[in-house]
Structure formats: structure tokens, C-alpha cells
Design a protein that fits this description.
- 29% of the residues lie in helices and 28% in strands.
- The protein has 260 residues and is α/β, with parallel strands linked by helices.
- The protein has a single domain, classed as Metallo-beta-lactamase, Chain A.
- A seven-stranded mixed sheet has the order 6-5-4-3-2-1-14. Strands 7-8-9-10-11-12-13 form a seven-stranded mixed sheet, covered by helices on one side.
- Strand 9 and strand 10 form a beta hairpin.
- Helix 8 crosses helix 9.
- The longest helix is centred in the C-terminal third of the chain and has 14 residues.
- The model has no long low-confidence stretch (mean pLDDT 97).
Length: 260
């Protein structure tokens, strides 16, 4: 398996996954042209993408989904609530490109097992994913207001985990956002802060997770350096020294990661 966050942040999200000889996107939160450029940057043609897996219908995750389906006839996987709530700006997704799944029920795509699991976020129905192929497991959990035991179990044993570290609480509270937006972000259906991400990773480390990418950082309420330093401090305080950590970038791809 190979995985690469193409862009990750409050302004747009998309990641590339290659598994069992097939190529996928997880979310498509940019224009079709921009997605093509991002894929070109890692040596992948957009025409070789076999499917898109959508986490939820917010525009920073689905802006390019309609174009991918209409122009390149790429199948789009999402649950029924997500399809129904897609913003008008996405445009029509051809029916023959729609692949509707039930959250928390595993299915197979191209030699890979996929488990979408419900996630606490203020969308029609947000999901995270675990992907299983080549005896490896990748999990993706972004846009999550909190992490409970059920989500920890979904991510347990992942060879690589992409997890949200959206904001620093002090930056958010001192920043210019209106009070209702701050409350939404801080809620249990909002976004995960750096500190809570670190606390979750302490537990996940004990559940077999050793390699992590922090993602979905807020441009206004976080920095890559702060996210990493905060999470690492929480890990050190708990005696966790061997967790491999990096931070996804808001505007360009990370180097592709081999999940071996």
C-alpha cells in the first residue's frame, strides 16, 4: 500500500491511496484541475484513479467530486445521506457513478476491504475509513469532534493513521471567529484539537498504532509546528517515545508513504 495526503486542511482535503494494484482518492476537496495538478506532482495521472471515497459532504471534501464523476467516469463511494446532502456546487453525479454503502458495514473494492465507520461531525453523516490490503491497514479519521472507545477500536492496529489535529484551543478562543463558530468547532461534533489528538494517540499507541500523520489543520487556529510540538509533548508525558509522526500539508502533497 502507498498513501499520500495531497492537501489537508480547513480549505481543502484529498489523499491518494494505491492498494492491490488500484488507485483511489479519499475525498476530493479541490477543483478537478487542481486535483489533476496535485496528482501530477506525485507522478499519477488523474485518469488512472479507480474510485473516490467521500468522508462527508462539506465542500472542502467534495468540491471536485462531480467533475471527477462526469469527466472521468470515476465511481464515487459515499452513504445515502452524504449523497443527498451534496452541495449544489458539486453538480450532478451520474447515477452510474454512485456507489452507496452503509456505514459500519465492510465491503470490497478491487481486492481491498473497506470499512467506513460513523464519525462525530456536524454533517449529514460523516465517516472515517479503514482500508485493508496486502496484509496492511490504513485508517483515516478527520473532521471528528471527539474520539470515543468505538473510534479507538476502529483505528486500533493501523499500520498508518491519518488523524485530525485541527486547532489549538487558545488560538481559537483568542482569534477572530464569531462566538457561535468557535462553539461549533469546540463541540463534540466539531473538530479535534491538538491536545485531544495527542491523548487519543497515547491510547492508540497501546493499541498497536506506531505511525501517524496529523491532518486537517486550521490555517487560522493552528500551525504545523504547534500541532506537532503539542502532540509530541502529550506523548512524551505519557512515556510514548517510538510513535512516528509527521504533519500533512495544507497546500501541497507530502512525499508518498509506503505502508510496509
Amino acid at each position: 500500500m502507498q498513501f499520500c495526503p495531497l492537501i489537508s486542511g480547513s480549505s481543502g482535503n484529498a489523499a491518494f491511496l494505491e492498494a492491490a494494484g488500484k488507485r483511489y482518492l479519499i475525498d476530493a476537496g479541490a477543483t478537478g484541475k487542481r486535483l489533476s495538478q496535485l496528482l501530477d506532482a506525485i507522478g499519477v495521472s488523474i485518469r488512472t484513479i479507480d474510485a473516490v471515497f467521500v468522508t462527508h459532504e462539506h465542500s472542502d471534501h467534495v468540491a471536485g467530486v462531480g467533475v471527477l464523476a462526469r469527466t472521468y467516469h470515476i465511481p464515487v463511494y459515499a452513504d445515502a445521506d452524504c449523497f443527498a446532502a451534496m452541495p449544489a456546487s458539486v453538480g450532478v453525479i451520474p447515477v452510474d457513478c454512485m456507489r452507496v454503502f452503509e456505514p459500519d458495514r465492510e465491503f470490497a473494492v478491487g481486492g481491498m476491504r473497506v470499512l467506513p465507520f460513523s464519525a462525530p461531525h456536524d454533517a449529514a453523516h460523516a465517516v472515517g475509513y479503514s482500508f485493508f490490503a496486502e496484509e496492511k491497514k490504513l485508517s483515516v479519521m478527520t473532521d471528528i469532534g471527539c474520539i470515543d472507545d468505538r473510534l479507538l477500536q476502529r483505528a486500533a492496529g493501523s499500520d498508518l493513521l491519518l488523524i485530525e489535529a485541527n486547532h489549538d484551543v487558545d488560538m481559537l478562543l483568542a482569534g477572530p471567529y464569531p462566538y457561535p463558530l468557535k462553539q461549533r468547532i469546540l463541540s463534540r461534533r466539531g473538530h479535534l484539537c491538538n491536545e485531544d489528538c495527542g491523548q487519543a494517540l497515547v491510547r492508540l499507541h497501546d493499541m498497536g498504532v506506531k505511525r501517524v500523520i496529523l491532518g486537517h489543520l486550521s490555517k487560522e487556529n493552528n500551525t504545523p509546528e504547534l500541532a506537532r510540538v503539542t502532540v509530541e509533548a502529550v506523548l512524551r508525558a505519557a512515556g510514548v517515545e517510538d510513535l512516528q509522526l509527521c504533519v500533512a500539508l495544507r497546500d501541497r502533497p507530502l512525499a508518498p508513504v509506503e505502508i510496509a
